[in-house]
Amino acid sequence: MNRRNFVMLSSVMCMITSLTLACSQTLSPGNPGTSTNGGTSPVRLTISAAASVQDAMQEVKALYETVNPDVSITYNFGSSGSLAQQIAQGAPTDVFLSASQQWMDSLETQGEILEGSRQNLLLNSLVLITPLDQTAVQDFSDIATDKVNRVAIGEPKSAPVGRYAREALTSLNLFDTLQSKMVFAKDVRQVLAYVETGNVDAGLVYATDARGSEQVMAIATAPAESHPPIIYPVGVVAASQSTEAAQAFVDFLADDEAVTIFTNYGFTIAE
Fold first, then answer.
1. Measured between alpha carbons, how far is residue 193 from residues 18, 52, 154, 188, 196 in Å?
2. Which of 90, 20, 87, 19 is nearest to 49 (CA)?
């Protein structure tokens, strides 16, 4: 083969190789981290939220992901104290929604909450509940009598509902009297389950949890002055890798659509 033919053949081979590579890049799926439509990667947010907002937040998720298809939300529900401890220990979290100012204050003091992102979102109240088929208990005073053998409250050290219950019962001069009757639960949903199944005769839960159950009835509401205001603060976790998207979700929780969901579940919107 003479030099001229060799050069021409080499040029042709280079063109074929270039075209092959170009076609390969065009037809292959998008690279990891890039959406196939040329946009940015889907954002995945992890939301740690108090157990008492579980039902409402599931509806919020469905709505938010519908209007924001590039955002995927994963929930971590539990007692606010346990969730706060997880965040403080470095658990990947983007947003924290607490049923207590105490645990949000603790994280904020440690620098775990993004400055300027915190806001008070919801209000709740504390009620005494019993199984539907009981008729003996009519008020808080009855749980100190032989009408009741066991009373469930949340664990005061980790579950805000337990701390509110302890303070309310203390204010009513009942806490010490009830020590031998108390059954402690990890969060408000477990208190509710104990009453629903008849494992205890009564329990103290948030009004919204009582409202959402067809197996219990609310007998009495704890006086507002008997415990600190039940306020649900929310904020972006400082260690989040998606602070902009996390803040957008926090802002959405105060929008009209989300507010409607929360009020349908019995929450009051904080001013």
1. 66, 13, 12, 9, 5
2. 87
The pTM of this model reads 0.82
> What would the CATH number be for the domain defined by 43-123+229-269?
3.40.190.10
**What local confidence, expressed as pLDDT, does residue 23 receive?**
38
* Residues of each domain in the chain carrying CATH 3.40.190.10: 43-123+229-269, 126-221
Separation between Cα atoms, residue 23 and residue 66, nearest integer Å: 34
Nearest one of 189, 192, 187 to 203, comparing CA atoms: 192
Q: 126-221: which CATH architecture?
A: 3-Layer(aba) Sandwich (3.40)
pLDDT of residue 271: 80
